[in-house]
From TrEMBL:
InterPro entries: Cu-R_CopD_dom
The entry's keywords: Membrane, Transmembrane, Transmembrane helix
Keyword set includes Transmembrane helix: yes
Gene Ontology cellular component terms for the protein in this record: membrane
The protein's name: Copper resistance protein CopD
Bilayer-spanning residue ranges: 6-29, 50-67, 87-106, 118-139
All residue ranges annotated as the Copper resistance protein D domain in the record: 43-135
Signal sequence coordinates: none
Any matching Pfam family: CopD
Length: 146
């Protein structure tokens, strides 16, 4: 069961991280250079259908995996435990990702134009960086946590 759960978590992570790397490295630089938000809008329209469910799957499976490592959620607050510290840092990354997503959805995307594209670019780079931090923290579990 644990292996299947981890596989599902990693497959969803591959979708999330890969999509954001494509966006940040493949589409954003050209969109910024041309001052054209349309390629970003089109990517988001298509990617949302896969990326958002992938994130939801990661949250569910991530919490499930965390409970397997430390069954008592109160133990997650024990920063003397490297596994608890890693769980907490992943939760902090999730909170930051959600805050950026909500801000982008409510404040940036509705008024997106060529002038506001750099602000969206900051969001894209931040979410992509957080996605890579998620991966690094996940690898840290293999070595006992951070």
């Amino acid at each position: 069961m644990a292996g299947t759960l981890l596989f599902i978590h990693l497959a969803a992570a591959a979708i999330w991280v890969g999509g954001h790397l494509v966006l940040a490295i493949g589409l954003l630089p050209e969109a910024l250079a041309k001052r054209d938000p349309e390629p970003i809008r089109e990517f988001e329209r298509v990617y949302e259908q896969l990326g958002l469910p992938a994130m939801a799957i990661q949250v569910i499976t991530g919490l499930w995996l965390a409970r397997r490592l430390l069954p008592e959620m109160a133990a997650w607050m024990d920063w003397s435990n490297p596994v608890a510290r890693t769980i907490d840092l992943k939760i902090a990354c999730l909170a930051a990702t959600l805050a950026l997503a909500v801000h982008a959805r409510l404040r940036v995307v509705p008024t997106l134009n060529a002038d506001r594209l750099p602000l969206l670019g900051v969001h894209i780079i931040a979410v992509t960086t957080l996605a890579l931090v998620f991966v690094w923290l996940g690898v840290c579990f293999r070595y006992g946590g951070v």
